[in-house]
Amino acid sequence: MRNRLPPPKRSALMTSSSIRPASDYPPGGDAFRHRHLLGIAPLTPWEISYILDAAEEWVEMNRSGAAKHDDRLAGLTIINAFFENSTRTLLSFEIAGKRLGADVVNMHAAQSSVKKGETLIDTAMTLNAMRADAIVIRHASSGAVQLIADKVDCPVLNAGDGRHEHPTQALLDALTIRRRKGRVEGLTIAICGDVLHSRVARSNILALTLLGNEVRVVAPPTLTPPAMERMHVATFTDMDEGLKDADVVMMLRLQNERMDGAYLPSAREYHALYGLTPARLDKAKPDAIVMHPGPMNRGVEIDSSIADDPERSTITEQVEMGVAVRMACLDILTRRKRGVPGWN
Ligand code: NCD
Question: Residue 117's pLDDT band (boundaries 50, 70, 90)?
């Protein structure tokens, strides 16, 4: 099954997605106009490229053998408020804040007053009263992060809200693609699996179509969100068809914790029809890369032989890019607060 619409027209501003010199961007706060990072939806292609270019600098520093430290956020307090379980995203934000010299505090919902019945607004007011300089939030409900952002005085970064958005994941994915493929435009990208429950898919669809790629969704009908054509993506229910000539294959985890009904007969059946096997991957371009945001269900949505193949799989590189992208976001969003010239 195939349902196809042309990708949106490219922005006139967007000529190349390779690294631009800083002088190409408007100066100061005009280069990135937002107070928060709540999603990809409000961003322009320029703003996405601006973050990716800034992240490149941090990739360099993080790879250097020397001390990985820059003190530009010294004296600032960053609160990571995670109302939902996370390993890599929480660690990644914590490392990013610390490498920039900030004081980073983690709040886990399991140990917080949320369990005692406190409302989200009261939690937000409490965090605000502690005079955080940036708050990073993950929450199981779509829209919860926006609600908190409306109540606090500092920048808020969305680390994943329900099925809505996970903007730093889409940015790190775009950076990974750009580094592996030399560009992140004009590519055919297949996003495969549990798209219905995935904020990663949503943010990636927004970012990758905006940057001028052809995005396809490949999923069982029960896990395909309605009205995908409005997001300018083609939908496929057959893996072999959906992967044909793809440059990038992005696999998603089966989000069992978000399923409140029977979407699938069994994990075994899912693997038989939608698992990424070497034979299926052969349908994509010979140099196609394989991505996964983690955590992976090996043997369900992806075979270990592919996940562990350094030529094809970008999984560990995505984790690495995550730290750099989050450093870039924390730096950019706190510039106003730090009085960086031009960012008032
Ligand atoms: C993703 C998430 O939490 O949305 N993971 C992540 O950020 N590392 C994807 C997932 O949970 O499957």
Answer: low
Any atom of ligand 1 within 6 Å of the Cβ of 160? yes
Exposed/middle/buried for 207, CB within 10 Å: 0-12, 13-18, 19+? buried
pTM of the entire predicted model: 0.93
Average pLDDT, the chain: 91
In whole angstroms, what is the distance from residue 116 CA to residue 134 CA?
A: 25
Q: pLDDT per residue over 259-314, tens digit each? A: 666 677 788 889 999 999 999 999 999 999 999 999 999 999 999 999 999 999 99
> 29 CB less than 6 Å from ligand 1?
no
**Ligand 1, closest atom to CA 169?**
7
Which candidate, 91, 64, 168, 81, places its Cα nearest to that of 118? 81
Substitution candidate for ligand 1 out of 166, 195, 316 with most atoms within 8 A of CB: 166
The number of the ligand 1 atom at minimal distance from the alpha carbon of 255 is 12
Computed from CA positions of residues 333, 334, 336, 341, in that sequence, does the dihedral angle turn out positive or negative?
negative
Q: Rounded mean pLDDT of 26-33?
A: 93
Pull the structure tokens for residue 300: 């369900």
Return phi, psi of residue 33, to 5°: -90, 0
